[in-house]
Amino acid sequence: MRRDPRTRIGVITKGSLVEGLEMKLDPHRSVEEVKAGKFVVVQGQQHEFFSMITDLRLEATSSQILLQPPSEEETVLREVLRGKNTYATISLRPMLMLRIGEEAFGAEPQPVKTIPSHFAPVYEATEEDVNRVFGGESLAPRYFHIGTPLDMETPVCLNLDRFVERSNGIFGKTGTGKTFLTRLVLSGLIHRKHGEVVTFIFDMHSEYGWEAAQEGSDRFVKGLKWLFGDKVAIFTLDPESARRRNAPYDCEVRIRYEDITVEDIAPLQDELRLNQTAIEAAYLVVAQYGKHWLKALLEASNIKEFAEEVGAHPESLSALQRKLKRLERFPFLTDNPHDDVLTIIRQYIERGTHIVLEFGQQTSLLCYLLVANILARRIHEMYVHQTERYMATQRPEEKPKHLVIVIEEAHKFLNPQAAKQTPFGAIAREMRKYFVSLLVVDQRPSEIDDEVLSQIGTRIVALLNDEKDIQAVLTGVSNTAGLRSVLASLDTKQQALILGHAVPMPIVIRTRDYDHRFYEAMGYTAERAREQTRRMVEELFSS
Fold first, then answer.
1. Nearest 5 degrees, angle CA 205-CA 211-CA 212?
2. CA angle at residue 214 from 210 to 218, to 5 degrees?
3. Each residue of 242-300: pLDDT tens digit?
4. Is the predicted pLDDT of residue 106 greater than 70, yes or no?
């Protein structure tokens, strides 16, 4: 009945459609060879069931055996008992099924609607099985190799077309490689979907653009600008930091005071310790001074007279001024009306150039939240306008390029209170129809608003220990009990559970190595390396 020789590991003994299947491990197989998250295939009479191992248990036919277990020296007795009297049972979660013989006609696996019969054999998945379910890079540019199943070397691919259709999340506790995973995904989007998709990355710690230290070693890994050259532009808020790191950049970001609105300030209430009365006072200043409201407030010397002029309470206005004075410390804020970085950003995005915005030494959370709010709000407005224009003309050349905005510390923007105020909440909920989606990177998904989490299409989850965080990343996922145990068993490095819109079924992978072989796969050659070095030296000397 089988199409190809696979390695059998056991047989189905019981189960249900709701609770999953139970397999008895073959006696000659060691239970230590079987790991939670492993990808296996159940061979039914009419269907093949692509499944994930979710739990392992040791069983015995009689409790008397367990009351008097054989000693270490009684090896013969151990072998006699093994398999018949003592054995291992494995819990499986069938994810997809395919009618036997239909794959020859191009049929794709479908959601599970039935279960196999008793004693159906279970086999380790083969390379062909993985390719049938997850596709392959050789099949279409929409597929990108992100890792391999546990105990296999066969590529598991993300469907990038489906990935960008919705907002997505990369989650894991500190030190589990979220940045590394994000860099992998972004490389895939740039390499496989350049010209169709553009990314805007808020790079709080300068880890994506030029080079970054590899955690736990003295090695440095290449950033996106190194790998993809002119396809990527580095913008920086701190050019001095870039020069100290010998990192070239394409544009220095300077934000005008007049580009800052009350809507950009309101989500910063926690960071600035502002109350609602202060925000209301800010709107009164706007009514009097328009887009120059912030500079007028900061320069007001007699706050009592200023309060009378705008009709605000002096104490509220004084508190607002005192808190907003912190913004004057940011060297990238400017009065120059010609410093219009928003226009430059729009030009790069329309050309399809991916943007990495580095913060350099400006790594305070206040700075990150402020800049991300300002720029994301303008990008939001730009895409709404472009989409409405495209809908009116219906000309293909007017169609906006799909934009993926990458934010770290996402819970600061998307907690229940901030999600209603920041542009990121609106993007997560509704911007898919305006060709914009989010890639949120966070270690505390439990602090993200539930409504936003429910809109996350694909989740790439590294190790999480907090039960609230595990529950949060599984929001909206059916039959989560088995996935919880799988998440708890992940290694701290280079393992992740992928589930959601961009993969046909949940799977645990060993993530792809980010090394010279990966660079070459992205098209980075020795010739390009020499050219990059030459240009870097020229840019550094010219600056």
1. 50
2. 110
3. 888 888 899 999 999 999 999 999 888 888 888 888 889 999 999 999 999 999 999 99
4. no
144 and 503 in contact (C-beta within 8 Å)?
A: no
- Extract the tokens encoding 505: 């079924």
Q: Residue type for 3, please?
A: R
Look at residue 217 in the predicted model and tell me its pLDDT.
66
Half-sphere exposure of 151 (CA within 13 A, CB side): 14
Neighbours of 291 (CB within 10 A): 13
Residue 180: its H or E element: helix 178-193
Tokens of 380: 């939001």
Q: What pLDDT digit, counting tens, does each position of 24-74 carry?
A: 999 888 899 899 899 999 999 999 999 999 999 998 888 777 777 877 777
State whether the Cα torsion 457-460-466-467 is positive or negative: positive
Residue type, 421: Q
pTM of the model: 0.88
Phi then psi for residue 274, to 5 deg, are: -95, 145
Class of domain 160-254+339-463+491-538: alpha beta
* The token pair that represents 227 in the structure block: 């790998």
SS3 percent helix, strand, coil of the chain, rounded to 5, is 45, 25, 35
The burial class, CB within 10 Å (0-12 / 13-18 / 19+), for 233 is: buried
